[in-house]
Amino acid sequence: MDLGELERAAAWINRANSVVAFTGAGISVESGIPDFRSPGGLWSKFNPDVYCDFQTFKAKPKLFWEMAREMQATIARAQPNPAHITLVEMEKQNLVSCVITQNIDNLHQQAGSTSVFELHGNAATSSCIMCHEQVPTPEAIGQLQGQDSKVPKCKICDGVMKMDVILFGEALTNSILEGAMTAAMTADVMLVVGTSLTVSPANEVVSACRRRNGKVIIVDPDHSVKPQGDLLLCGQAGVVLPQLLQACFAKRNVSTTS
Ligand SMILES: NC(=O)c1ccc[n+]([C@@H]2O[C@H](COP(=O)([O-])OP(=O)(O)OC[C@H]3O[C@@H](n4cnc5c(N)ncnc54)[C@H](O)[C@@H]3O)[C@@H](O)[C@H]2O)c1
Ligand SMILES: [Zn+2]
């Protein structure tokens, strides 16, 4: 990684009134949860365009639960990595005001981030599509054992249960999207970590920040995301974010002593 770029990013963060982090699947790759783009793992078995699609869920919920069962097992094994932990430290140091995430794995909250906008929901719970009765997802998955239909059903009304995540083709929760957009529009800096920025409307938080002249710092090992930001810190989030925090501390000390 270019050390000059690291210093430039640290200077922007130290100078900003509000820095918002925007994260995607890439931040959880080092925790053992595969993203959509890398070969291998869960998503080579379950094409997300099919298994994470709302129309497919409505027509064949059994397919969704086949994938959800394996995804739940992967998420249950995962622990926050140094990237999640650094964002918590940045919040404590008043260097980051909130996290907007596309992830459904709960790892930001598990690490200790207190202000998180989950644009795509959270896999930890599941709800009935008819009466909205909510249960922990492991309880819904527990129902699949030895059951013929292979779809968990609501114990109140017998409706089909769905994990509390937003699928492709499904609307986002308005209040959460609005909160995230407000944070993005008032941010001087957006720290974009581990997202291909291809999923809409989530990716609109980045354009909202840029429209108000906010700077966009991208952390990603893939150069192809670079044009969508002002600066790319190329590398794995679990390595780059701790280095970025150290650079912020170093720059802060220099400016307070000089
Ligand atoms: N952990 C999860 O909750 C999870 C996992 C898979 C997909 N999803 C969801 O599916 C959609 C996919 O869009 P997306 O843009 O988030 O993911 P994506 O798979 O389209 O893109 C992931 C990005 O992360 C980068 N990346 C890979 N390893 C990285 C690392 N170690 N450090 C930093 N960056 C790394 C990749 O180069 C890529 O640019 C989103 O809604 C996403 O949240 C969530
Ligand atoms: Zn119900």
UniProtKB/TrEMBL annotation:
GO MF annotation list: histone deacetylase activity, NAD-dependent; metal ion binding; NAD+ binding
Deacetylase sirtuin-type domain ranges (all copies)? 1-251
- Which annotated residues bind Zn(2+)? 128, 131, 154, 157
- InterPro entries named in the record: DHS-like_NAD/FAD-binding_dom (IPR029035), NAD-dep_sirtuin_deacylases (IPR050134), Sirtuin (IPR003000), Sirtuin_cat_small_dom_sf (IPR026591), Ssirtuin_cat_dom (IPR026590)
Protein keywords: Metal-binding, NAD, Transferase, Zinc
- What PROSITE patterns does the annotation carry? SIRTUIN
* Sections of the chain in a coiled coil: none
User: What is the superkingdom listed in this entry's lineage?
Assistant: Eukaryota
Positions of the catalytic residues:
120 (proton acceptor)
Gene3D superfamilies for this protein: SIR2/SIRT2 'Small Domain, TPP-binding domain
Provide GO CC annotations from the record: nucleus
Recorded hits in PANTHER family, A to Z, give: NAD-DEPENDENT PROTEIN DEACYLASE SIRTUIN-5, MITOCHONDRIAL-RELATED
Protein name stated in the entry? Deacetylase sirtuin-type domain-containing protein
Q: Which organism is it from?
A: Ceratodon purpureus
